[in-house]
Amino acid sequence: MSTTIQFVKYQGTGNDFILLDDRNETFPVSKELIAHLCHRRFGIGADGLILLKNAEGYDFRMVYFNADGAEGSMCGNGGRCTVRFAHDLGIFAENTRFIAVDGAHEAVADSEVIKLKMSPVKGLQKQESYDFLNTGSPHYVTFVDEVAKTEVVTLGRTIRYGDIFGPLGGTNVNFVEVVSDNHLKVRTYERGVEDETYSCGTGVTACALSSHAHFGWQGPVTIDTPGGSLCVTFQEIAPEVYDSIYLIGPAKRVFNGEVQVS
């Protein structure tokens, strides 16, 4: 027996997602089905799949799944795309409050840009060659001279599955080049996708906070990714404690359609 699923595809600086309106709780969640839908040869193709659900006390709930079908941690660009989806559905007009796996979020939408408030960040581990912090998802941040020449997939996979992070469930890996004051270039290897993505929202947030720790930048920090540019603003309210973190950038509808699944 087959089921027809209505979906909409969105992208935020090239980070692309399948969005489903699941307020009626009918989507048949399974790791195999989600991985199939996200497959770029045999499915719709996406970096992840997101369900928009009802949530008491909030405008909606965001439930995010990685491209491998497993439920994931917070996704910043996915959050911005979900806000755009909810806005397109008429759930809110300009300001919204929703809940995700890492807690409550606020966002503002206009015709071009989504301004998403990220969760507070406590603690930034500075090691000799990298920083590690959690911005809703775990992130390894290392600075390089020329990010365009960096072997992102090879190095990222080695770090993600290595002796330090592999036993802990792995980590996302960000390679960062300083362009000028308050301006970075970033490329990211994402766990769950297990490849480089065009952009990673929690990743660029981590890189902006790391730049503050290293260079004292106060923001806003502009971050160029392969999929476009994002902006991150923040406040350090105590040593290595950050709040009022906003991830700002475009989120756009690509197309809508339907797919039949068994």
Plain-language structure description:
The protein has helices at 31-38, 76-88, 152-160, 201-215, and strands at 3-12, 15-21, 48-53, 60-66, 95-100, 103-109, 113-117, 121-122, 125-126, 131-134, 138-143, 172-180, 183-190, 195-197, 221-225, 228-238, 241-250, 252-261. The protein has 262 residues and is an alpha+beta fold. It folds into 2 domains: 3-116 and 251-261, Diaminopimelate Epimerase, Chain A, domain 1; 121-249, Roll (Diaminopimelate Epimerase, Chain A, domain 1), CATH 3.10.310. It has an 18-stranded mixed sheet that branches. It is globular, with a radius of gyration of 18 Å. The N and C termini lie close together (6 Å). The model has no long low-confidence stretch (mean pLDDT 97).
Low-pLDDT windows of residues: none
Instruction: Report the oligomer.
Output: single chain
SS element count, helices? 4
CATH topology of the largest domain: Diaminopimelate Epimerase, Chain A, domain 1
Based on secondary structure, the structural category is alpha+beta
Radius of gyration: 18 Å
What does the overall shape look like?
Answer: globular
Report strand %.
over 45%
CATH superfamily membership of the largest domain, which one?
Diaminopimelate Epimerase, Chain A, domain 1
Distance between the termini: 6 Å
Would you report the number of β strands? 18
Which CATH first-tier class of the largest domain would you pick? Answer: Alpha Beta
Active site: 75 (proton donor), 200 (proton acceptor)
Site (Could be important to modulate the pK values of the two catalytic cysteine residues): 139, 190
EC number: 5.1.1.7
GO biological process, one term: lysine biosynthetic process via diaminopimelate
